[in-house]
Amino acid sequence: MTNDERMARRRHVLGAGAAMIGWGIAPAMAQEREAAPVPGDAIAVTLLGTGSPELRTDRYGMSTLIQAGGLNLVVDAGRGCTVRLAQSGVPLGEVDALFITHFHSDHLNGLPDLWMVGYLRPYWGHRAAPLEIYGPKGIAHIAATLRDTFRDDVRIRQADEHVPEAGTELVAHEFPDWGTVFERNGVRVTAFEVNHGPLIKPACGYRVDYAGRSVVVSGDTKFDENLIAHSEGVDLLVHEVAVAPKPILDAPYIQAILNHHTTPEQAGIVFARTKPRMAAFSHIVQLNDENNPRPTDAEIEQRTRTGWNGPLLIGNDLTRFVVTKDAIAVSHGDATRNG
Predict the structure, then answer these.
(1) Which is nearest to 328 in space by CA: 306, 317, 313, 309?
(2) pLDDT tens digits, residue range 149-180?
(3) Helix, strand or coil for residue 230?
(4) What is the rounded CA–CA span in Å between residue 179 and residue 326?
(5) Is the CA virtual torsion 180, 181, 184, 188 positive or negative?
(6) Residues annotated as part of the active site
(7) CATH superfamily of 32-332
(8) Mean pLDDT in the chain?
(9) Nearest Cα residue to 285 out of 106, 135, 112
(10) Do the beta carbons of residue 241 and residue 286 sit within 8 Å?
């Protein structure tokens, strides 16, 4: 869908959205927030969710919006990704493709919401074409199982609300090997293997290239040479990180988590070797127990600085980067607002 087609569709469905106030829907949800514009030669990245499986409202589950070439691409669909998309001004029906890094639940538990709410008719859904989902071997099984699980929702919505059949389709693109997995409108997406532990395979990161600009989303990974190889000289490197207070570092369940992730010190080495124009953290795992508070963002930054003295940002939900030739502009959205 072109930008002109998107705007024409929005003008059409906003009238219907305004009418929904009479149905008792709160006015804040009956007004569409316009997505911020993206310059034609830029890549815009919005951190939809920067958290882990922990049940937090300030950091929703892992999800990243990448906008380039008129496309809305989403990497991972963690808890709450649909809410953050709405707060970013992107209707669910305008997500052009979803890319999954691996099959841990905190990267997938927002998928049913993104899929099914996306085919509803109000302006915040209104998908008329299949939701395309990309991932390593196993993603086709997940898509088929979801279609079977929610077949009654699809059937009822089509009959009762006249949802178009095409909009209810979930099309899986399972890549058998690493490399270029998506090319459209000058946007190229490359999948590369990462090390999330010996039993968590497949697991991958993604690199997005467009108009001479580049962004890497690490996925969940330990310190990994393959990630470094695919991230050298990238404009923006969005990397995961995990920390725990010293008194509980030796606890077996803490070690079981940390052994699958990257410490701030290790991330500093990754940044120093890849030399991104900007480094940012997402999927921020801040472990604690009832006697020890979670490590702070300031501590994460301080520990990362032992190896990296370049631009660094501890991401928050709705942090947005606009990557152009001359600069990387950063803005911080309000993840606490309604709608």
Answers:
(1) 313
(2) 999 999 999 999 999 999 999 999 999 999 99
(3) helix
(4) 28
(5) negative
(6) 106
(7) Ribonuclease Z/Hydroxyacylglutathione hydrolase-like (3.60.15.10)
(8) 91
(9) 106
(10) no
| Polymer length of the chain | 339
Amino acid at 209: D
Q: How many CA atoms lie within 13 A of 80 on its CB side?
A: 25
Lowest-pLDDT range of 17-26, 235-244, 284-293? 17-26
Is beta strand 131-135 parallel, antiparallel or unpaired with respect to 97-99?
Answer: parallel
Q: For residue 334, name the pLDDT band (cuts at 50, 70, 90).
A: confident
pLDDT greater than 50 at residue 28? no
What are the structural domain ranges in the chain?
Answer: 1-31, 32-332
- E strands, the chain, are 43-49, 63-68, 71-75, 97-99, 131-135, 170-174, 179-184, 187-193, 204-210, 213-217, 236-243, 278-286, 312-314, 319-323, 328-332
- Sheet with 131-135, strands from edge to edge, namely 170-174, 131-135, 97-99, 71-75, 63-68, 43-49, 319-323, 328-332
